[in-house]
Amino acid sequence: MGSFAFVASLFALLFLLIPYGQSFYLPGVAPRDFNKGDPLQVKVNKLSSTKTQLPYDYYFLTYCKPTKIMNSAENLGEVLRGDRIENSVYTFEMRKEESCKIACRVKLDAESAKNFKEKIDDEYRVNMILDNLPVAVPRQRRDGSPSTTYEHGFRVGFKGSYTGSKTEKYFINNHLSFRVMYHKDLETDSARIVGFEVAPISINHEYKVWDDKNTQLVTCTKNIIQGSTVPQEIEADKEIVFTYDVSFKPSEVKWASRWDTYLLMNDDQIHWFSIINSLMIVLFLSGMVAMIMMRTLYRDIANYNQLETQDEAQEETGWKLVHGDVFRPPINSGLLCVYIGTGVQIFGMTLVTMIFALLGFLSPSNRGGLMTAMVLLWVFMGLFAGYSSARLYKMFKGTEWKRNTLKTAFMFPGILFAIFFVLNALIWGEQSSGALPFGTMFALVFLWFGISVPLVFVGSYLGFKKPAIDDPVKTNKIPRQIPEQAWYMKPVFSILIGGILPFGAVFIELFFILTSIWLNQFYYIFGFLFIVFVILLITCAEITIVLCYFQLCSEDYHWWWRAYLTAGSSALYLFLYSVFYFFTKLEISKLVSGILYFGYMLLGSYAFFVLTGTIGFYACFWFVRKIYSSVKID
Q1: In 10 A of CB 138, how many CB atoms?
Q2: Are strands 239-250 and 175-184 parallel, antiparallel or unpaired?
Q3: Buried residues in 244-266 as b, exposed as e (16+ CB within 10 A)
Q4: Do 250 and 172 fall into the same domain?
Q5: Residue 56 per-residue DSSP state
Q6: Same domain? 465 vs 498
Q7: Which residues contact 53 (CB under 8 A, 6 or more apart)?
Q8: Angle, to 10 degrees, between the axis of helix 500-518 and the axis of helix 570-585?
Q9: How many whole angstroms separate alpha carbon 281 and alpha carbon 276?
Q10: Domain boundaries, position 287
Q11: Which of 407, 437, 469 is the last residue of a domain?
Q12: N or C terminus of the chain: which is more exposed, having fewer CB within 10 Å?
């Protein structure tokens, strides 16, 4: 254990030091002070739609382009999310208001007009960034309250009829009224940006003479309101003039609180209801487990150790009768070891990611940070995957530890990568920016083969060097006959029943997670998520122990795979819920988008199956060893 403990503690120390090393300055997250007249550069991000789930590069549409388009530095998580952050023509100076500034004039060809119309049909939104703040469109609440809500990004345009025409036409939002909120430092006169709003408007601009340096627009006045002007129609060979206003407004909001408007949580009561609902399930299960443990470890064991006759023991309980077979290695024991190792890897990744998120290192302001952390942690947790897989494999008296290690290193990531590659090919076929570039694919393969696989081998080597885990009781040479089981103790029924409660403990929080992934909302309530994750662990462990006890009492000693599948079956309910969510909450109509949704949800459900199955297995493993080590076997 010494060498493994040293390596594990070394990695733990590294993980703890990495965020503290960056805690004083996270790229793009540290505050910036702007003096009056300092240049402000608006960056453009992807075009996104909740109807198609296919992001596109901003310049996929014929918008105003700067002389040279430059990509901002992106981390791995941003690329995986489909973010493409680039410079734009929208530049202004701090606290200097601009009115009716012309960005550019473009003439649409047939292809450009078609692209604009398609994006309006699919309700695409334009995303922009200023000083790391995403642009938002303020909206009045529907309930009539004075406070405003925010929509992320603004629509490309809209459909409608104009001047009594019955046919619907397409109009583009070609005028942007930006409003920058700033918090002023009274001592230095510098200011920090704390808000970035936009009001998109469609205006059919007119001018007398076009002059590249000083064109006077007839149609542009200060404080234009949507609906008070003739909108700009989208048609082939039509000219569009893009314009913008900039206003600055002092704000009492401090820089540290500037994300609060984006993360405004109106559902805290629902989250608390979710927590209470889950805690009730946990208390109910804990009561059952406590009752079983009291009965098993005190009364059953006391009576059994008093050497009662075999008939009396059998009449009272049946779990002691299978002591000679309960530690017999299961069918496909090698595959079980692989899944257990992978489950430990996912558990480690999830736990450390959540801890980092709780500490604030993976907030939405650190764009792509969450995804990057998950990928890197997955890679480094390969050490624990190899170790736990090898320890179990040696206990089952396996000899081909290298083959077992190879399966652990390649099986789950291989399935993930194969499905992901197919989905990525579909996205690439749609010319979406969500498709991973070749370089990123190569980086992921390098992380897998160059770091994860060697770490799995190191962990496996350390695990296989350790002495095998001894069974508390000896295994008989001849397997015991299993009696006919009641219908409710049949494997399929008990496995399906076992997954309901773990899913029930998390399904309310699952709604918010799916909303953040598929409806472009920010997910930031990691405190609630961590509590729910702990409740999930306890629920999986307890339901598996309860059902395992009933199984052993009915003299069925094939508990290894049953324990794994009992908790893992909650993934089936997760996938069924994602189907329900698709048809009730999403408006996806494209075939490719539907395939993407179900492909990614299948991957998520598979990972959830491996995680919950591993938790259930280890709980049952501990329980079985505990009860059989407490009885005297003649």
Answers
A1: 14
A2: parallel
A3: bbbebeebebebeebbebbeeee
A4: yes
A5: B
A6: no
A7: 518, 588, 593, 596, 597
A8: 40
A9: 9
A10: 265-296+492-590+612-634
A11: 469
A12: C
Pair (234, 351) in one structural domain: no
* Residue 540 · residue 286 · CB < 8 Å: no
| Same domain membership, residue 46 and residue 4 | no
Tell me the DSSP string of 101-117. EEEEEEE--HHHHHHHH
3-state SS class at 46:
strand
How many structural domains compose the chain?
3
> What is the residue type of 238?
K
Taking the CB of residue 481, how many other CB atoms lie within 10 A of it? Answer: 7
Q: Tokens for 338?
A: 């692989």
> Which phi and psi (to 5°) does residue 472 adopt?
-65, -30
**Count of Cβ atoms closer than 10 Å to residue 86 Cβ:** 17
Give the dihedral sign, CA 612/614/615/616. Answer: positive
Domain-embedded: residue 319: no
The pTM score is 0.85
In terms of DSSP bridges, do strands 239-250 and 191-201 run parallel, antiparallel, or are they unpaired? unpaired
DSSP label at residue 58? G
CA distance 14 to 447: 18
- 429 within some domain: yes
Residue 313 in any domain: the answer is: no
- DSSP H helical ranges for 58-172: 76-81, 110-121
d(CA 74, CA 390): 38
What whole-number distance in Å separates Cα of residue 499 and Cα of residue 496? 6
Segment 299-336, tens digit of pLDDT: 666 666 665 555 554 444 567 777 778 888 888 899 99
Inside any domain, residue 26: yes
- Per-residue pLDDT of 531-582, as tens digits, reads 889 989 998 998 899 899 888 888 888 889 999 999 999 999 999 999 999 9
pLDDT in tens, 501-530: 889 888 888 888 888 888 877 777 788 888
Claim to verify: residue 13 and residue 66 sit in the same structural domain: no
Q: Are 573 and 609 in contact (CB under 8 A)?
A: no
Domain boundary among 207, 227, 257: 257
Q: Are residues 496 and 419 in the same domain?
A: no
Are 72 and 214 found together in one domain? yes
Same domain, 463 and 574: no
